[in-house]
């Protein structure tokens, strides 16, 4: 049996939703996020980023820029609360109908949410039990991916979360839990484990 994990979306959950982030300095943590992640770290819970990042496929910036953004994210988390992500997965691919342009990254991918590829890869590589794992996101597609993989799906009201709840963004979804922000989501997760 694998171990439970907490999967975390990036934009609108860990950092402030700001569209496509072209400048590294424009990536800012949502207040309280680093401390909440540190709580999970202190409990020995595996924490894993899972993020759709279609910037490279859209020709907005190279894949190396996404990696630089993730380095900054990890540095801010460490500086603010000594918090860490145990693994980071992201999908740089996008299909042509969705707007993929750069041939190197333009294709349909099992990794693109709401497909489950990132969760399945993480489970294989880190011996995780998806049925007892949690996914925290701010979009309907985050909750859909969670349910597609048998995880508990939590919607936070930061980022696009509030708009999803009022039916103003993406589509209707049925999260297992709705949390004001990551701090509240983590409190609830710790009660379930
Ligand atoms: Mg998001």
Automatic annotation (TrEMBL):
Residues that, per the record, bind Mg(2+): 9, 11, 138-139
Residues that coordinate or bind Zn(2+): 91
GO molecular function: metal ion binding; phosphatase activity
Coiled coil (UniProt feature): none
GO CC terms, sorted: cytoplasm
Binding residues for substrate: 9-11, 17-20, 51-54, 112-113, 139
Cofactor: Zn(2+); Mg(2+)
Record key words, sorted: Carbohydrate metabolism, Cytoplasm, Hydrolase, Magnesium, Metal-binding, Zinc
GO BP annotation list: carbohydrate metabolic process
Marked site (Contributes to substrate recognition) residue numbers: 112
UniProt-listed Enzyme Commission number(s): 3.1.3.-
Gene3D superfamilies, sorted: HAD superfamily/HAD-like (3.40.50.1000)
Residues the record marks as site: Stabilizes the phosphoryl group: 51, 113
Top enzyme category: hydrolase
Record InterPro entries: HAD-like_sf (IPR036412), HAD-SF_hydro_IIIA (IPR006549), HAD_sf (IPR023214), Heptose_bisP_phosphatase (IPR004446), Histidinol-phos (IPR006543)
Top-level taxon of origin: Bacteria
UniProt-annotated location(s): Cytoplasm
Primary localisation category: cytoplasm
Family: Belongs to the gmhB family.
Record protein name field: D,D-heptose 1,7-bisphosphate phosphatase
Lineage, broadest ranks: Bacteria, Bacillati, Cyanobacteriota, Cyanophyceae, Nostocales
